[in-house]
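Entry 12.
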Amino acid sequence: MITDCKASLNNGVLTISNGLIEKRIPKVESFETMEYDNCGLSKLGLRVRSKIENNEYIFDIWEGIPAIEISGANELCAPMPTEHVTLRAARLWTNTDALDTLVSETERNLYRGNLPETEGHIFFLDDVVNGGTTVIIARVPDLHTPSLKVEKRVVKLKNYGYPVMIGYCKTENAEKLCREMYKCIFATSGLHAMSNTWGDRNGRTRVEQEFIKREIDAAAEMGLDIVQIDDGWQVGVPDVFDENKFRVFGDGFWELRDDIFPKGMRYLRDYAAKKGVQLGLWFAPQSRNGFESFERDIAVLKKAYDEWGIRYFKLDMIQLISDGLCEKMREFLNAVYSFGKDVSVELDVTADKRLGYLNSAPYGTIFVENRYTKWANAYPHNTLRNLWQLCRYVPSSKLQFELVNPRLNSDCYKENDPLKPSEYDIDYLFAQVMFSNPLFWLETQFVWDEDKEKLKKIVSLWKKYRSELDASDIRPICEKPSGTSVTGFVAESGECAHILVFREFTERENSEISFAGAMKGVEMIASNGSPCFEATEEKLKITFDKKCEFVWLRAKK
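Predicted 3D structure (tokens):
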């Protein structure tokens, strides 16, 4: 039960508050309240439905956070409180098969009460005199790009009718508040380590019963949670398109190939369960003609859930070119989550228009990118950079980032390339993504034995501490990853902090990190080298002994 969130109506003015934020809405005709957690997908909060000039608006507010979400308006307007304002805008990019810069940032100053229209998904209005910031998150799908402008000291946000979160804090806490606001919508179900059969770029050619059993064996040996079977388990091949370039999945497409799975999927699920591993499955809802196969597709997944014991579904190949399709996709996701509290999805954002990072907030994790050693486009420092930038705004527990098999396809890269995957230790590659949901984008049975031993050790440590990581606020520190920087993350909770620092391919041996609060009892959890560290109450100095080295430390607060 929530106690601090309240709503009242006096003389047509609706007041919504939680002790940290108060919102007054005029011209309200009526309202009703209910406790709401989106069927367990979101944090419990107070939902306020109101009628304003015969239109319905929804306001969500939560205890302990100075933020509120507003739904129902195509454009939001508010007066600018002061003349001295700096706008910072962050745009989050999907379509990652074509892009490798996933965050772009813009900064502008208010001039004569105006700011030009600026595109973005997250906006920070910094009051440079008083040190406060208004944080605005427009939870809009890929179909639209939100924008903000100021005209005659009036802020106007174009959000196309999608939900908008607004919060207030000190400027130094603005990015943290952004992540906290996101977590009100996204109630993480815990971090997981998953493998996927597509990552070595052999596609559907190897998928069959005995191959998957070997994948399960190797995944269990390394301590992974889930083996996800990608494209190839089903009868159909997804290479037919209609005149509008939508994929066509005809009758019988999603039948299990009993020629390559003669004992059925339940047999593999039981085999995996004996090894302490779960199975996941790739699937592509048919989005053409307004999700014309909605009921069939849900039935396929329900059968996989009920009869095969599948709990993790990667959803791919979706094209959401209209608001109606976006709404239908959310309806589809709600239907999937109605199967049970243990179901989860991975939403692919690698191509086409999807729900994106923000509109998909309540649902599962984001499968961020495809990178392949066979195509020589897998560069570990770029993966690290993309996670480092995104986790400033989106909780890293929402994201799924990959590590590849560094022993494969080295000949596809230039021989003297110091940043190709083969130049890295495999536990370094895992460490890069372990503050997200690590995706073993590889065929596990072909990981070298010595690499399996390294992974077994660090995955075991990660599983020991992952509940702490999941409960933490994770933020990037040091420099933006470039391949030649010193960079990292800090995961802070009430009782402890995990510090993860990387020396990339650089001559610099030292890193010094300052903390606002005292750090005590610092211990090293893992490293792929022999670094030294010196900790005082508010500073941490690390000396690395080789290039491409990481150190994972844990401190008490």
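Annotation: The first helix runs from residue 174 to 185. The first strand starts at residue 6 and ends at 10.
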